[in-house]
Amino acid sequence: MLLRPHAAFDHQGAWCGSVVAYGADNLGSAASELWAVQFTGTAETVRPTDEELERLGPCPRRIDDRDFRPAHLRIEPCFVTVHTMDGSPGGAAVVGAVGAIHSVI
Fold this sequence. Notes:
Structural class: mainly beta
Low-confidence stretches: 91-105
Largest sheet: 5 strands, antiparallel
Distance between the termini: 6 Å
Order of helices and strands: EHEEHEEEE
Shape: globular
Mean pLDDT: 80
Radius of gyration: 16 Å
């Protein structure tokens, strides 16, 4: 997993070489199928390829009144959990996948 945090916050300095947990979801969206993913792995500072930079899309211009300066971290996931749920009121959560993985996502 490739992340692009704001270098001014120095997350990359705290995360680099450490085991971290990261999560993302679309729970605030109006999608009919909601999902959340969490994974745990070791983070390292990297220089992304041109293709990876293109896939990340354009950088924001400013974050918290500061010019955005990208840092790039790769997390090599060891454990991944994916949850999906029906987006209708009262929809029940269903675990989609849990376990160890052996390749980069």
